[in-house]
Design brief:
This protein has 176 residues and is an alpha+beta fold. It is 29% helix and 34% strand.
């Protein structure tokens, strides 16, 4: 199975929205309650890419099998070089290398843009597939915030993981 990674575009929104809808309704990998419609998903994509962050899709046999993007970790100026990642894979494509291909491409795209740290905010410590994927790419467990969110009738913990990009916390960024 060949996985092809490319920049996402407006034509991918229906597939992206369908993948995300399952995450919202059935799982706790996102803490949203309401499924955003395609117009909202397009608005979000355009906002992210308009601010210079990467937004990627993975195709398998010509079909969108997953997507990933980086976004600002926090809005304060000092966090300019830190991104938060998001990786979502369609249920039918899980366990087939799609997440790994997306993660590598996302890391590469963020390094190319000069970002220095990547943070993963993972819904629930039971999301072992996501935790293992991040560990495989050099992320380290930074901490767990217990009982920080309420969804599907229960309190949820949130796992934070982090990895350096490029020079990490080394020399000052050239565009400081």
């Amino acid at each position: 199975m060949a996985v092809h990674i490319r920049d996402a575009g407006a034509a991918d929104i229906a597939a992206i929205a369908a993948i995300y809808a399952v995450e919202v309704t059935d799982f706790v990998n996102t803490y949203e309650y309401e499924v955003p419609d395609e117009a909202e998903m397009l608005r979000r994509m355009q906002d992210i890419t308009g601010r210079g962050f990467p937004y990627l899709v993975a195709e398998v046999d010509g079909q969108v099998a997953g997507y990933a993007y980086a976004n600002s970790f926090r809005s304060r100026a000092a966090y300019h070089w830190v991104v938060e990642n998001s990786v979502y894979v369609a249920a039918s494509a899980q366990g087939r290398g799609v997440g790994a291909a997306l993660m590598q491409a996302l890391i590469d795209a963020c390094v190319a843009r000069g970002f220095r740290q990547m943070v993963a905010v993972i819904g629930e410590p039971t999301n072992t597939a996501s935790i293992r994927l991040h560990e495989r790419f050099g992320f380290h467990h930074i901490g767990t915030l217990p009982g920080i969110a309420w969804k599907h009738g229960r309190w949820l913990d949130t796992v934070f993981m982090q990895r350096a990009l490029g020079d990490g916390a080394g020399p000052a960024p050239s565009n400081e």
